[in-house]
Amino acid sequence: MPETTFKKIMKKVAVADSLDDARRTAGMARLVAQLKSDFEKQYLN
Fold first, then answer.
1. Which residues, at least 6 apart from 2, have a Cβ–Cβ distance to it below 8 Å?
2. Closest CA to 30 of 7, 6, 5, 13
3. Is 12 helix (H, G, I), strand (E, B) or coil?
4. pLDDT tens across 15-26, in order?
5. 17-43: string of b/e by CB count within 10 Å (b at 16+)?
């Protein structure tokens, strides 16, 4: 994973820390889905 991508994700995780549990859970699910998609794009092409 490129360092810039990792830093973007970590910033989003830091922001999620201030959210309530339900919003944090939904946000983390979106991040995980995005990471899976990006991983597949990187290695399947």
1. none
2. 13
3. helix
4. 888 999 999 999
5. eeeeeeeeeeeeeeeeeeeeeeeeeee
Q: At 20, phi and psi to the nearest 5?
A: -70, 165
Can you give the pLDDT at residue 29?
92
Length of the chain: 45
Q: How far apart are CA 35 and CA 1, in angstroms?
A: 10
| Residue 23 lies in domain | 3-44
- Joined together, the tokens standing for residue 45 give 């092409």
Identify which of 11, 5, 3 has the alpha carbon closest to the alpha carbon of residue 34: 5
